[in-house]
Write a structure and sequence with these properties.
It is built from 23 helices and 22 strands. The chain is α/β, with parallel strands linked by helices and about 650 residues long. The strands form five sheets. Strands 10-9-8-11-12-13-18-22-21 form a nine-stranded mixed β-sheet, with helices on both faces. Helix 18 (about 430-450) links the parallel strand 12 (about 415-420) and strand 13. It is elongated.
Length: about 650
């Protein structure tokens, strides 16, 4: 029954009802003022004509003032100082209108001092009455909510401690006041000066050690610590996060805006390894980015992949005119389609099964939809697989990129943004070399247009970045699967390291680079500090509640074909130039002529189609002299 009352309170205390209550309270307050002024001996306040004019004026003034200020539209149970200011404005508006009406209808012998006093009384009594009603509503709602929680045997809320005294922590506390799943029993901070304070009735505890955290969790019966953002988790990896793991407390975090915006995410989730590896959130000029894409038709190739699908999600929130999602993987693309139907139903989108290697299919897509902008994310990316299937890597990554770029020229696209990789820098494997060859073709085409050697208006932009956290088939999902299976967790080498970036971060930088690019450029991203894969495995095992080496073994299997021990640093002073964005740099690379690039791509395409593997690899190494194979059967073809 109480839950039913709560539902009615939330659903039916709507704006029209609040408006009606406010008007009734306001008019009753004016009636109280009229009675009080009559009692103190003011004769004209007892005059029937004046009394009627006072009540009618109060009614009309209240209705007009509340409509103009819209104070009734606030959700009362979430009221704050902003809503109080709106309420004060509404009452002031009422009194101004009331003064105007009274001055018109007051008898000639009226005392303006008494009328002024009446108006002041009316202001304070009306405001006080409205505030009392709102406070009463909040108190009743909270009382009913607490009773509902205590009487609903099916709900046992998790008792949590919120970390920090930031604005995000306070906002999270307010959100969870309405939660039936979580009960905030305390706030923990490192600041000793804040110990003993109260935030919305919740006690603040200072914790700077494992013993202090154990004491607080024991006193409050908390079973989890909730962090207000992934960034705070990363900052406290060797502090509160470490203590919480040792204390056996569950680790929770409020998702980032990116996560909340993508689909039906919960307000709270478990901490993931991505949170510990994450970096400070990047800033981009979202207004400028929106202006670039708003109302335009955008094609994304590889739209079912990790990067491609995230690009589509972010583009959906930029009010693009039409979004074309192209991929050759039927089931993953179908899943993206279902996600968009559920969560982005305001977007005009098409999902198209197609392969960038099929020039006729691409021509149909470009001819039908005439995209203004193209994000080319379609590619084969797994290093060992491409080492074993080099012809397919050339056809998809080189010939496929050539096909997309040529169609952009043919159909007058404004920009093509190609997604490349850090493995294209001094490549040591087939996959990295094919991505470098794709860069060479796209860049040479753009330079040919700029130099007047080829007709076209498309601007070609290439973006390079390293590994993205949690992408399909990457190391983190693999480690999770191995941990869930009881181990061992397999790492190729104790010293191997990689640069990591979150998928949303990479996509934001891609879109920022797309806006920045006014010429044929290759942009590289600041990837931060490299992470040892062995350390990553250790932290993931610990995060799952196990002890590395005791509960879950880490097994070293040796470097795979084409695999580097250390990835190249993308953004250094020696090989890049700065841009207006601190995380985006412009690569300085050798330029190739368009005719040479066409000749190379044609030759590689023919060799790949006829599966002449050795001859094809030799040609690749001639075209990209810095391509030196590692741990691969193709090392014998290296050019010294």
């Amino acid at each position: 029954m109480i839950n039913g009352i709560l539902k009615i309170t939330r659903s039916y205390l709507r704006a029209p009802i609040v408006f009606l209550i406010d008007v009734i309270v306001s008019v009753l307050s004016s009636l109280i003022v009229l009675v009080l002024m009559s009692e103190v001996g003011s004769s004209f306040f007892r005059d029937d004509t004046f009394s009627a004019a006072w009540i009618i004026s109060a009614t009309i003034s209240s209705i007009v003032a509340f409509i103009i200020t819209r104070s009734y539209r606030a959700v009362i149970r979430y009221s704050s100082l902003r809503e109080l200011a709106d309420l004060i404005d509404a009452v002031i508006g009422k009194e101004v209108l009331l003064v105007a009406f009274i001055l018109i209808s007051a008898p000639a012998h009226s005392s303006y001092i008494l009328i002024t006093a009446a108006i002041l009384f009316d202001f304070f009594i009306t405001l006080a009455s409205l505030l009392i009603i709102r406070i009463a509503m909040v108190l009743v709602y909270d009382l009913l909510r607490k009773r509902a929680l205590s009487t609903d045997r099916g709900v046992t809320p998790t008792k949590v401690l919120i970390y920090g005294l930031s604005d995000k922590s306070a906002s999270l506390l307010m959100r969870l006041e309405q939660s039936t799943s979580y009960e905030v029993v305390g706030i923990i901070t490192k600041e000793e000066s804040s110990k003993g304070k109260l935030v919305r009735g919740v006690h603040v505890y200072a914790t700077n050690s494992l013993m202090e955290l154990l004491g607080v969790s024991g006193h409050t019966e908390a079973s989890a610590i909730l962090f207000p953002s992934p960034a705070t988790v990363h900052d406290e990896e060797h502090g509160i996060v470490k203590y919480a793991r040792e204390a056996g407390l569950k680790l929770l975090v409020a998702p980032s805006i990116d996560e909340l915006g993508n689909s039906n995410k919960k307000d709270v989730r478990n901490i993931r390894i991505e949170d510990l590896l994450g970096r400070t959130e990047i800033d981009i000029d979202i207004d400028e980015v929106k202006r670039e894409f708003e109302g335009k038709t955008v094609l994304v190739t590889g739209a079912a992949g990790s990067i491609g699908s995230e690009l589509c999600r972010q583009l959906a929130n930029l009010q693009v005119g039409k979004l074309i999602m192209l991929d050759n993987a039927e089931t993953p693309l179908h899943n993206v389609r279902l996600e968009f139907e559920d969560n982005f139903n305001w977007v005009d989108f098409e999902t198209i099964i197609g392969d960038v290697r099929m020039e006729k299919r691409l021509d149909y897509v470009f001819r039908t939809y005439r995209p203004d902008l193209v994000f080319h994310a379609a590619a084969y990316k797994h290093v060992p697989m491409m080492e074993e299937n080099p012809c397919e890597a050339v056809l998809a990554n080189v010939e496929g990129s050539r096909n997309v770029a040529d169609k952009c020229i043919e159909y007058d696209c404004e920009k093509m943004i190609m997604i490349s990789t850090d493995k294209a820098v001094n490549p040591t494997n087939i996959m990295g070399c094919t991505k470098r060859l794709a860069e060479i073709y796209v860049q040479s085409l753009g330079l040919a247009i700029k130099g007047g050697k080829k007709k076209g208006k498309t601007t070609f932009i290439t973006t390079r970045f390293g590994n993205v956290l949690g992408s399909n088939g990457s190391v983190i999902p693999r480690f999770k699967q191995q941990i869930e299976s009881g181990g061992p967790v397999t790492v190729t080498h104790p010293e191997i390291n990689r640069f990591f970036m979150t998928i949303p971060e990479a996509c934001r930088l891609v879109m920022e680079a797309a806006v920045m690019g006014k010429d044929t450029n290759i942009f590289v991203f600041d990837m931060g500090i490299p992470v040892k894969i062995a350390d990553l495995a250790t932290r993931m095992i610990e995060l799952a509640g196990y002890k590395p080496g005791t509960d879950i073994e880490i097994k070293y299997t040796g470097l795979r074909p084409g695999e580097k021990l250390y990835e190249e640093v993308l953004a250094s002073k020696e090989n890049t130039l700065p841009t207006s964005h601190s995380r985006i740099f412009m690569a300085q690379v050798r330029e190739y002529s368009y005719d040479d690039a066409v000749e190379v791509v044609n030759r590689l395409r023919d060799l790949a189609r006829s599966v002449e593997i050795n001859d094809m690899v030799i040609e690749m190494k001639k075209a990209v002299p810095e391509f030196k194979s590692k741990h691969s059967k193709f090392e014998k073809f290296d050019i010294n």
